[in-house]
Amino acid sequence: MSTHISNQKSAKTLSECIDYYEVCNRAEGKSPKTISWYSANLRCFRNYLKSRHLPDSINNIDTKLLREYILYLLKQTKYINHPFTPAQTELLSASTVHGHVRTLRAFFSWLVTEGIIEDNVTRDLKPPKVPRKVVSTLSDKEI
């Protein structure tokens, strides 16, 4: 995969940036699972833009669009378009959506660091709250 993006402030496509991000993550020695997770989440976002017939330019993405994407994810059911698991009626968990937001934040922070964009549009983006799971403890009798 030969991907190169100059640091000039010209219009870049989201697809080009995702490919370059993957190259940089590999070069930094991130684990294959982390790279795969980032790539899958970013492809999901790119597919969202395509399904809405929105431009693929990285410069057209703003905080409002990202918030709309979060709302979209919160309404999605599990395993839509999954190659092996049939779709379910259960909605994506807040934890899953939280992971997508973390991916977007990491990606846009990287875009700023690389000089591809000037302003981090995820700076004020808040992920959905994830409910705390209560872990039951053993009683004295159970010990």
Quick rundown:
Residues 8-112 form the Core-binding (CB) domain. By secondary structure, the protein is an all-alpha fold.
Keywords:
single chain, DNA polymerase, domain 1, mainly alpha, 143 residues
Q: What is the strand and helix layout of this fold?
A:
Blueprint: H1 14-27, H2 32-51, H3 63-74, H4 94-113
Protein described:
Keywords: DNA-binding. It comes from marine sediment metagenome. With about 140 residues, the protein is mostly helical. The protein has a domain at about 15-115: DNA polymerase, domain 1. It has 4 helices and no strands. The protein has helices spanning about 15-25, 30-50, 65-75, 95-115. The mean pLDDT is about 85.
CATH topology annotation of one domain: DNA polymerase, domain 1
| CATH structural architecture of one domain | Orthogonal Bundle
Oligomer state of the chains in this structure: single chain
**CA(first)-CA(last) distance:** 56 Å
- Count, helices: 4
